[in-house]
Each structure stands twice: as structure tokens, then as C-alpha cells.
Amino acid sequence: xxxxxxxxxxxxxxxxxxxxxxxxxxxxxxxxxxxxxxxxxxxxxxxxxxxxxxxxxxxxxxxxxxxxxxxxxxxxx
Length: 77
Prior knowledge:
Blueprint: E1 2-7, H1 12-28, E2 32-37, H2 40-45, E3 53-56, E4 59-63, H3 69-76
Parallel strand pairs: 1-2
Antiparallel strand pairs: 1-3, 3-4
């Protein structure tokens, strides 16, 4: 099971990235756990300066933008 982490303080862009990531994972039919990381200290611990960011199993795959669903699918596979 993949651990998909949305790094962000809960802004509208973070919520959108959460929705799109869930959609991508469901379309791929993958088993996943979605975790929202909202603590700024924890986000900075990932080395992320711009949110929203997407991490897969603890590795940052995207930061500072909202990728399209097709791009998210590539990032989380």
C-alpha cells in the first residue's frame, strides 16, 4: 500500500491537490493511505518551501503547483 501525503496548511490549492490525488489513485485502482500533513514544521522537514506538495512514501514528488490528474498518476505509481 502506498502512503500518499499532501503537504499543505489546508489552503484551497491543498484541498484541490487532495481531491485530484484521490481521483488519480482510484482511477489506477491502487491501494493507498492518504495523509494530510498540515504542520509547517513537518512540511519544512520534507524540504518543501512551497505548498501544496505531494509526497509518495515520504519522497516529495511535486511542490508548489497542482499537477493534472494524468501527471499525478505518473507520480504515484
